């Protein structure tokens, strides 16, 4: 059964990411290897923040989340930037959100022209994600979670983010099809 938060054993239920891990054939965790860390963070927040009916409707995404790890280094900043943009719709006067959105877009544009691979690049991406990337995502998600229609916004963000991750991010920082990845952040309302 889909449930909120983490679970000790599959018999107790599973969150969306734990379901994805089981479908991928891995261990029972909410951070499966086949899912991009930024997308997994978004999925955990969405899972823990939406009502039971919305969570149940999102459950089929677990299969797609099991194998949603684009290799393009620009994916994470573009995803975070998309979530920030959704938050800016709700708080258009926020200079902090505007600053975060610009920073994410700049990083995404810069990384779109850089080859994937190499230890220094992976370390730089990890440091960005563990620091400013995660903080920007969490702040933007708090804003989105406070919206009166948060369940619908969060579900839409997750669906689009999964579709973009599975479709891949093309050169230039724009996903195939001309769209930018969409993501949400952390809130547990």
Describe the structure.
The structure is a single chain. The chain is globular and about 40 Å long. It is an all-alpha fold and 189 residues long. 59% of the residues lie in helices and 0% in strands.
Concise overview:
This protein has 189 residues and is mainly α. Helix content is 59%, strand content 0%.
Task: Please supply descriptive tags for the structure shown above.
189 residues, globular, mainly alpha, disordered C terminus, 8 helices
Biggest sheet statistics: none
> Compute the gyration radius: what is it?
16 Å
Strand content: under 5%
Question: Which structural class fits the helix and strand makeup?
Answer: mainly alpha
Spans of at least 5 consecutive residues with low confidence: 169-189
Basic shape: globular
What's the total count of β strands? 0
Order of helices and strands: HHHHHHHH
* Count of separate DSSP helical elements: 8
């Amino acid at each position: 059964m889909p449930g909120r938060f983490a679970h000790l054993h599959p018999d107790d239920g599973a969150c969306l990411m734990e379901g994805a891990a089981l479908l991928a054939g891995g261990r029972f965790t909410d951070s499966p290897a086949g899912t991009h860390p930024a997308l997994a963070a978004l999925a955990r927040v969405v899972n823990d923040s939406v009502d039971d009916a919305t969570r149940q409707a999102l459950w089929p995404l677990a299969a797609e989340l099991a194998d949603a790890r684009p290799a393009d280094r620009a994916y994470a900043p573009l995803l975070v930037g998309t979530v920030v943009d959704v938050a800016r719709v709700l708080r258009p006067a926020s200079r902090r959100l505007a600053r975060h959105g610009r920073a994410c877009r700049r990083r995404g544009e810069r990384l779109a022209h850089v080859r994937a691979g190499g230890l220094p690049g992976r370390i730089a991406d990890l440091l960005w994600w563990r620091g400013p990337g995660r903080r920007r995502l969490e702040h933007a998600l708090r804003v989105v979670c406070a919206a009166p229609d948060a369940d619908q916004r969060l579900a839409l963000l997750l669906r689009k983010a999964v579709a973009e991750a599975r479709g891949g991010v093309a050169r230039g920082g724009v996903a195939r099809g001309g769209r930018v990845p969409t993501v949400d952040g952390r809130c547990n309302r």
